[in-house]
Amino acid sequence: MERSLFTSESVTEGHPDKICDQISDAILDAILAKDPKGRVAVECLTTTGLIMVAGEVTTDCYVDIPQIVRQTLRDIGYINPEFGIDATDCAVLTSIHEQSQNIAIGVDQTSNHEQGAGDQGMMFGFACNETPELMPLPIMLAHKLTMRLAEVRKKKILDWVRPDGKSQVTVEYEDSKPKRAEAIVIAVHHNPEVSNHNIKAGITEHVIKPVCGSWMDSNTKIFINETGIFAVGGPEADTGVTGRKIIVDTYGGMGRHGGGCFSGKDPSKVDRSASYMARYIAKNIVAAGLAEKCEIQLAYSIGVAQPVSVLVHTFGTGKVPDEKISEAVRKVFPLTPRGIIDHLKLKRPIYRKTASYGHFGRNDPDFTWEKTDKVQELRKELGIR
């Protein structure tokens, strides 16, 4: 029997990096709502009392970026200067210019040129049968913990919780199957008046047990605010930047990552759209019973429509050879940027809600890449009843 431990982390929507991801995607959504053909690549940085937005935008519409920034902060819960930033009084700086026309030549669809990829790069998708969401268990538990932290704050179940926070879950595996939670770590931003004893008791009872209880045993280790205090949080404690939580956004470190972030990018950027397609492919392969675990790699050249490579890896769990699954993938799934965008309906203003608690494993009809509607077509292509 082989025993191993695997750890994944998540962060709350009030974490400084996630503030930036949500602002970048809120700006993207505002532009797509008015101009579905808009091209957007927006980055954000935050520190004490400051939000800075920079990037490239090509559109014929106007959006009020400072207003979007402030509303996003309010929605997250940053409405008090004591929390690390205040939506009403923070400074908002912008530096936006038009996307290079050199890129547009290769990306734009014309009568004699199919829409090409917005950049070169490789993108990975992953799925496994560890959870109903066909996601790795460690990252799903970590996300559910941070979602629960936000819930107990917003519903005032624990009225001393502030927006910033993190979780980490270590799962014990036996022969590659998850068996139990080995360790659970929570860091929660809090009112300075609350005692460490009440923090640990409240988080254990109202956050950890409801989420992880069925995976815990008497040997599960719990660590909550182990420095003793986390009263200074948000951008006051930690500078945030768009795209700095790419492992939190994807599979928690299980499976590989191409390196590109998602937030603030319109779907012509294959960093985002092809990663969504790769997840869609991998999930359908696992849902079809073709493998217990599957990783997909897609690779593109800037300005070229078809991927330069498609790789399927099932880690020895495939019911048919990986090469045959790869051949079926090319026949069943649209892999050009235009095909991906049209099939997954990616020109909609749906992205801000992807920017916290993971882009994958979410039960939301707008997350079209989570559908398993290609199961029968895959099985038929591979001659499996």
Number of helices: 10
Order of helices and strands: EHEEHEEEHEHEEHEEHHEEHHH
Binned, the helix content reads: 25-40%
> Class by helix and strand content?
alpha+beta
Beta-strand content bin: 15-25%
Note the quaternary state here. Answer: single chain
Low-confidence stretches: none
Average pLDDT score: 94
Tally the beta strands: 13
Determine the N-to-C terminus distance: 33 Å
Radius of gyration: 22 Å
Spatial strand arrangement across the major sheet: 1-8-9-10
Question: Which outline best applies?
Answer: flat
Biggest sheet, open or closed, and with what strands and sense?
A: 4 strands, mixed
Provide a descriptive summary of the structure in words.
The chain is of the alpha+beta class. Helix content is 31%, strand content 24%. The chain has ten helices and 13 strands. The protein has helices spanning 16-34, 65-76, 101-107, 137-154, 196-212, 246-249, 270-287, 322-332, 337-344, 375-381; strands at residues 3-11, 39-47, 50-58, 79-80, 85-86, 91-97, 121-128, 161-174, 177-190, 221-224, 240-241, 293-300, 309-313. The chain has a four-stranded mixed β-sheet.
